[in-house]
């Protein structure tokens, strides 16, 4: 990362829904992202659900964008993320940005995330999913849900490889967590993700899977992202982020002791599920200076 980098870090939020998390992340990036603080910072804002909903305070370090998604997608799980990520990628490509870092608002950045920098020939850096959930196990045939997605996204069998989930250590076909993505905007991966998702989420055949197991609907976006990446990227064009990135604080009790860091400060970025749920805050001891910053930030509701 160089001074005055024209790379971009972006996230989105909805006023009154996750304003507090977005505000915390914005402050967090400025304080602890190292040279990534010299990137362009973009915040995409969905329309508020209710008049007077709390919005993110103005910040000179961030450029704001108003976002909308197709009306028919408004109630579908995580559709907003898919459509807005594609919008961010298009704007980043038009700006000739060398890379776009897309992250969820429930993210803590503990130190400079150097692994997000894309080397020549790498199209995307992304972490594995946390747990197996709906992932397709390598030791079993892909089920109808995954077969349909792979077919729709034109996934070549030669692009499929084995990887492990972060928490339960299950060997699966590629399945990535959509909460932290570093991508070359020129490749169009996030826009293809949107197009593939748009072609699947209302498909009557997919509805049958949603009725079988509601998790198929909740996590459709991540399954489609995985298939999209496999369609557009060879194995050496995908960088799997280490477990110190996107670490699931809310799942730490499910991890074996060898997989747990000694301190929160050993992580680079982490995810939490609820700011007011104290379990994740006490799961790991925290060293200074992050400890004082986090304590102060959480007190300022």
Individual helix count: 9
CATH fold group? Spore Coat Polysaccharide Biosynthesis Protein SpsA, Chain A
Largest sheet: 7 strands, mixed
Fraction of residues in helix: 25-40%
Span of the ends, CA to CA = 33 Å
Domains, number: 1
Strand order of the largest sheet: 3-2-1-4-9-6-10
Summary?
With 301 residues, the protein is an alpha/beta fold. It has helices at residues 19-32, 79-94, 144-152, 189-198, 204-212, 214-218, 220-232, 279-282, 290-299, and strands at 8-13, 40-45, 63-66, 100-103, 107-109, 124-126, 163-164, 171-172, 180-183, 238-240, 247-248, 269-271. It is 30% helix and 14% strand.
Topology:
Blueprint: E1 8-13, H1 19-32, E2 40-45, E3 63-66, H2 79-94, E4 100-103, E5 107-109, E6 124-126, H3 144-152, E7 163-164, E8 171-172, E9 180-183, H4 189-198, H5 204-212, H6 214-218, H7 220-232, E10 238-240, E11 247-248, E12 269-271, H8 279-282, H9 290-299
Parallel strand pairs: 1-2, 1-4, 2-3, 6-10, 11-12
Antiparallel strand pairs: 4-9, 5-12, 6-9, 7-8
What does this structure look like?
By secondary structure, this protein is of the alpha/beta class. 30% of the residues lie in helices and 14% in strands. The chain has a single domain (8-299), classed as Spore Coat Polysaccharide Biosynthesis Protein SpsA, Chain A (Alpha-Beta Complex). It has 9 helices and 12 strands. The strands form 3 sheets. It has a 7-stranded mixed beta sheet with strand order 3-2-1-4-9-6-10, with helices on one face. It has a 3-stranded mixed beta sheet with strand order 5-12-11. Helix 2 (79-94) packs antiparallel against helix 4 (189-198) and helix 4 crosses helix 7 (220-232). The longest helix is centred in the N-terminal third of the chain and has 16 residues, at 79-94. The chain is globular.
């Amino acid at each position: 990362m160089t001074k005055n980098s024209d790379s971009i870090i972006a996230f989105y939020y909805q006023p009154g829904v996750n304003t507090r998390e977005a505000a915390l992340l914005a402050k967090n990036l400025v304080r602890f992202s190292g040279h990534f603080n010299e990137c362009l910072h973009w915040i995409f804002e969905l329309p508020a659900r209710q008049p007077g909903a709390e919005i993110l305070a103005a910040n000179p370090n961030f450029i704001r964008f108003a976002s909308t998604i197709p009306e028919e997608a408004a109630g579908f799980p995580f559709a907003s993320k898919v459509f807005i990520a594609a919008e961010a990628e298009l704007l980043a490509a038009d700006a000739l940005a060398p890379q776009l870092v897309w992250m969820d608002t429930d993210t803590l950045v503990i130190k400079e995330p150097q692994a997000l920098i894309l080397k020549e020939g790498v199209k995307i850096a992304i972490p594995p999913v946390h747990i197996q959930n709906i992932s397709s196990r390598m030791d079993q045939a892909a089920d109808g849900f995954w077969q349909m997605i792979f077919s729709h996204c034109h996934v070549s069998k030669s692009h499929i490889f084995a990887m492990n989930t972060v928490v339960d250590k299950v060997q699966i076909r590629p399945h990535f967590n959509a909460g932290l993505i570093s991508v070359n905007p020129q490749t169009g991966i996030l826009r293809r993700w949107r197009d593939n998702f748009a072609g699947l989420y209302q498909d009557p055949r997919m509805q049958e899977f949603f009725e079988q197991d509601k998790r198929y609907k909740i996590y459709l976006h991540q399954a489609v992202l995985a298939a999209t990446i496999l369609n557009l990227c060879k194995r050496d064009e995908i960088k799997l982020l280490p477990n110190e990135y996107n670490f699931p604080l809310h799942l730490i009790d499910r991890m074996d002791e060898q997989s747990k860091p000694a301190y929160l400060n050993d992580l680079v970025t982490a995810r939490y599920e609820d700011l007011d749920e104290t379990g994740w805050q006490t799961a790991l001891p925290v060293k200074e200076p992050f400890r004082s910053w986090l304590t102060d930030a959480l007190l300022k509701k």
